[in-house]
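[Automated response] Your request has been received and processed.

Submitted sequence:
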Amino acid sequence: MPIQAFSREIDPYKNFKFRVYMGAALVAGVSKVSALKRTTEVVTNRSGGMDSTVVVSPGQSKAEPITLERGLALDRTFEGWAQAVYSPDGDGAVSLANMRRNLTIELLNLQGQPVYKWQVFGCWVSEYTALPELDANANAFAFETIVLQNHGFRRDVDFAGEDAAIFQPAA
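Generated structure:
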């Protein structure tokens, strides 16, 4: 069997090609997305007849915050979303009606076709960096950053990316 038949199952996808959607709208210019991470607490207890053995069970699960970073541009999507939970005019100027939004993150292959999709639920902005540290001696871009709290995520298993028959050997 030729080695080429299994090349896609051996070579992992690159992490520098992706897209982020807020609902159906593409979020322009996102250059970095932190890891999607979930942590489940471990609950320990002991059984009455087994004094020397600890039994472990899953406890509460928590989705870790997600950070999105992009170059500072004229698009005000991040700023507008961050303002949903804060206003310099006080609480009376804050409306939490549009605070939570669902995101879709797509991982793309080298040809720019989506191969994986994750849905992230109930996101809201808990931290917003409108302007990074400015340094006249630096040779860098200015980035704005948001940190998103969320209710969790799941991979879209119904999405058949690049090829549904990836793991089937060639005849």
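Summary generated for your ticket: The helical segments are 7-10, 77-82. The CA atoms of residues 1 and 171 lie 8 Å apart.
If you did not submit this request, please reply to this message.
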